[in-house]
Amino acid sequence: MRKYLFLAMATALFFSLVSIDSGLYAQEKLRYSCSAQVYEAFEKERLALFTKATGIPVDLFIASSSSSVNRLMYGYSDVASTARGIFYPLKESGYMETPFCRDPLAVIVNSSSQLSGLTEEQLVRVFSGDVDNWKGVGGPDAPIVVVIPAKNTAAFENFERMALKKKDIKYDLMAYKSTMVIDVVKRFPSAVSFIASGAIANAEGVKVLKVNGLGPKERGYPYYQEFYFVTKGKPEGPAKTFIDFALSEKGRAIIDKRGMIPVKP
How is domain 28-102+225-262 classified at the CATH fold level? Predict the structure, then answer.
């Protein structure tokens, strides 16, 4: 009798411990697919503060804007961030976008470049291939190396739409992710590219060109893109907690610090 009683007690203790362990592993977490531009702009800081403030860990995947939204569609994420708005059919299907930031698209060159700025017309000539030597736009006698992010990135689509005036970009090198253009421009003294201004806040080896005499943070600068969170339906659970944090005073302070403009949804 004692033998059976001992086995029953041991079995009950085992299942109680298993129950406790499973409760620990069932901890709430946020599955987040993040645009590379958004990540480089401020997510390193914001995600750490979010987890510290809420106790919610983040399962992070960094990709292009389109890939981030696709991961959300296929159920791999609770929320995605993107550097462009979602298309109408997705909105019709119940997907929601929450704007949170406006960020200038900066034109960058190697830090050794003698140029300080270009006009919009000169930029069209450079990126369309009409000019292939910096001498043609007031620079040194050196071949222009045009570097672009992958064509499926929001940075590429936004810049081509805003800056190229319906012309196609002709390029020499393509980076897999939008933020990789920074490393490429560092390595080529004659290179030129474009990237979210927030992504190069602390970058070394590159410098930002003025456009029409204006820097990215100045009123009247011509190239801006908007950052969004995207969810399936109305945000809820960890996704809502994260979006609420991003739009809070603490979240907006991070955006301000990086030289970008917070947007109220």
Answer: D-Maltodextrin-Binding Protein; domain 2 (3.40.190)
